[in-house]
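User: Just a sanity check before I run the rest of the batch. Below are the structure tokens for the first item. I only need the designed sequence back.
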């Protein structure tokens, strides 16, 4: 074989090896969701690739047979083609044994370098860059190779299957998608600029609906504006003017005996028509949805959907009212500060090392703000105030503090045993920072304002 013929043969072998390398990496890197979308759009090649991904054993067997066969042939042809020429060149300066050995080494290095660069690195990086486009083009040629090499493919595939059984392993690809996978994709999309940071946060909040209890979004008991069944007309009108909410629970005797609720629209209509308001009128008081305080936000949404309501009273295991929740409260949890007014912010960053946080702030929001994975005794509390109570083992007082995870949590304001504000500072900044005056307490509405 002449030098030109040998070089041509080496080029063909490099192209063949590049084909198998590209076919291998493109199938492995192809995104199943993208392929399924292409198949749904009518691309028959995507259906073929999806079947190959489900049972990739024969596919990768052909790849390995082709790559190893090409590598062996490349070594044989390369040494025979380049060895004599390098031997003749090296013989001019070195002895025969040294020239012979040097010719073999130089030929090997050149051939190996060509295969590594052109048949391995370049095609694999190209396959990683555009896996779906390439695997669709290579699927049919690979199917032909699988048909031609069927006997060898069967032998080696059955051998590999036997090894999997011996070691108790599964050869099937796990295609299950978890919420963590989706969140990781959203994080990657935000870093790439495909998703805005706020859009990513909304998606994250949606997944948290299954883990956050209704207590994290409710208006607490001491903030609930309610009517008694026997309240006179004048009292009802004064309370509407003082606390203009969209919905009011109606109670019998006290707040723990809720008999229904009244919609502010019905009350305003009577006021505008100059009609008397009496909550003894059953047509005015609607049946109220009662939910336990251990439900998650997603379960509360499902209850709202089933009964076609957007307001619920929350009770604990002793049937005592602990708060109320509206559909708007749940959606505010999802949308975060996209819809929350500035004067209702529960977390205010004072500087890069300190935050002023409302005591009723859900603990998930605190963790996210401070970039913490968890706080101790997780599951025993829902809010920052609950965390401080668990850590101190008593009702916190002003100036009480807790040190954990590189942060200092200091109680800044307490109103009738309710923790209004907590100053959170990074530990290294707490010793050097001056005293910061607390901001005015954030008022929490009992229900959505009209």
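Assistant: Here's the designed sequence for the first item:
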């Amino acid at each position: 074989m002449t030098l030109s013929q040998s070089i041509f043969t080496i080029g063909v072998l490099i192209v063949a090896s590049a084909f198998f390398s590209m076919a291998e990496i493109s199938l492995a890197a192809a995104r199943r969701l993208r392929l399924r979308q292409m198949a749904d759009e009518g691309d028959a090649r995507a259906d073929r690739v999806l079947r190959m991904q489900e049972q990739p054993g024969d596919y990768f067997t052909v790849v390995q047979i082709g790559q190893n066969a090409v590598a062996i042939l490349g070594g044989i042809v390369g040494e025979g083609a380049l060895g004599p020429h390098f031997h003749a060149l090296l013989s001019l300066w070195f002895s025969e044994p040294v020239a012979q050995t040097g010719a073999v080494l130089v030929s090997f290095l050149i051939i190996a370098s060509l295969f590594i660069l052109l048949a391995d690195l370049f095609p694999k990086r190209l396959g990683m860059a555009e896996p779906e486009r390439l695997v669709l083009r290579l699927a049919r040629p690979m199917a032909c190779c699988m048909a031609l090499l069927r006997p060898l493919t069967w032998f080696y595939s059955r051998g590999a299957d036997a090894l999997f059984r011996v070691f108790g392993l599964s050869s099937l690809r796990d295609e299950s998608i978890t919420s963590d996978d989706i969140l990781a994709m959203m994080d990657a999309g935000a870093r790439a600029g495909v998703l805005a940071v706020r859009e990513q946060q909304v998606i994250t909040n949606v997944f948290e609906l299954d883990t956050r209890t209704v207590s994290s979004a409710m208006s607490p008991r001491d903030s609930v504006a309610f009517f008694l069944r026997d309240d006179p007309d004048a009292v009802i009108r004064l309370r509407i003017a003082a606390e203009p909410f969209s919905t009011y629970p109606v109670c019998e005797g006290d707040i723990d005996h809720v008999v229904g609720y009244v919609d502010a629209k019905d009350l305003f209509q009577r006021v505008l028509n100059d009609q008397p308001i009496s909550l003894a009128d059953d047509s005015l008081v609607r049946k109220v949805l009662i939910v336990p305080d251990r439900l998650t936000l997603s379960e509360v949404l499902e209850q709202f959907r089933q009964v076609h309501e957007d307001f619920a009273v929350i009770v604990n295991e002793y049937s005592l009212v602990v708060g109320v929740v509206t559909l708007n409260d749940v959606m505010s949890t999802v949308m975060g500060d996209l819809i929350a007014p500035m004067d209702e912010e529960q977390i205010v960053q004072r500087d890069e090392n300190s935050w002023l946080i409302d005591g009723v702030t859900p603990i998930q929001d605190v963790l996210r703000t401070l970039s913490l994975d968890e706080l101790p005794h997780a599951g025993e509390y829902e809010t920052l105030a609950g965390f401080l109570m668990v850590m101190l083992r008593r009702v916190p007082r002003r100036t009480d503090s807790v040190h954990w995870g590189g942060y200092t949590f200091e109680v800044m304001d307490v109103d009738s045993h309710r923790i209004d504000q907590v100053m959170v500072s990074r530990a290294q900044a707490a010793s050097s920072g001056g005293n910061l005056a607390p901001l005015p307490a954030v008022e929490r509405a009992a229900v959505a304002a009209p």
